[in-house]
Specification:
By secondary structure, the protein is mostly helical. It has 2 domains: 183 residues, MFS general substrate transporter like domains (Growth Hormone, Chain: A), CATH 1.20.1250; 197 residues, Growth Hormone, Chain: A (Up-down Bundle), CATH 1.20.1250.20. The protein is 83% helix and 0% strand. Helix 1 runs antiparallel to helix 6 and helix 10 packs antiparallel against helix 13.
Length: 399
Amino acid sequence: MTQKRYYSLILILGSLTALGPFSIDMYLPGFPAIAADLQTNTSRVSLSLSSFFIGISAGQLLYGPLLDRFGRKRPLYLGLLVYILASAGCAFVTTIDALIGLRFIQALGSCAATVASVAMVRDLFPVKDNAKVFALLMLVLGVSPMVAPTLGGYVTVAFGWHTIFLILLGLGTFNLIASWLWLPESYKPDTNLSLKPKPIINNFWIVFKTPQFYTYALTGALAFSGLFAYISGSPLLFMEIFQVSEETYGWIFALLALGFIGSSQVNTLMLRRYTSEQLISGALITQSITAIVFLIGSIYGWFGLTETTALLFVFLCCLGFVSPNTSALSLLPFTKNAGSASALMGAIQMGVGALASVGVSLFAVKSAVPTVSVMVLSSVLALTVLYLGKKKLKSQHKP
């Protein structure tokens, strides 16, 4: 493979990887404008974010078997076409219910790009280069939450929120054309693979009932659901309670994303001195204390914009330590079912995150308390599951 070909493949796969984060984060600054245009409130608009998370959760379980059964490109084309049509629909909706439904369909489409890009890294690149390529794709995932809301803030002010979905439509179209022209079919379809629900469900059940998997997958998903609560509640928190502009909101979101990304990189260095288990425990204790302090302060009105941003920064930094370590420990027992375990872990994470997002959206009040309450619940439950799961694992390992 020539160097030019090598980097062109990475560029296309990186663009596919960015589709999901841009779809989640770019329209956040437009929440107040969407609420005003569709004659609703921001809490109701945030349900369109929850439906997107539900779509991603379902899509991860759907596309894994399809990509193995039909090859990589045909399911990818189908998903991108669904994404393009749903994005067009989102740009011209006239009711909030239509937006919520179309965002679910849009998520199902974007999920094809995410799952296919991961699978194609393994297909197209030598094993020795996989870690390097995945690191570059993770960089795209890290940069997207910093760029997308900031760009979305400026676009909303200049052209209106409808334009954001037209930009997403353009991004989906670019990915479809680029995949068709420049991505090779990297996997021969497995016609023997059954798509019947029973064997697929049985395979997922074998993975889920492994104690190490459910301990760390649930711990990671519960802790990570605090991020989903923050994303859902942040437009109301910053733009309605603290009255910051759409552009300023984008920059604050980028700063907080930097905390999460930066701590995940520091985690790599910390692993030289501490085990994954130690880092998870320490981060969850810190995260729980931070969230409880944040909740008490929110109830009594102690915190302004600066203090709120600082507490959220610490909370998200803790997730940067929890997420990579719980992911690694969840997948550790698997060799044969690693793909199913990875898909199930992602589905659990998105499913629990969607519940957290819905929990925030149910409270149509101009207060930080609902958002922070869900953050407290997610942190404390994660710590509880970790404690009980580790006791179970220790009892299994005793002679």
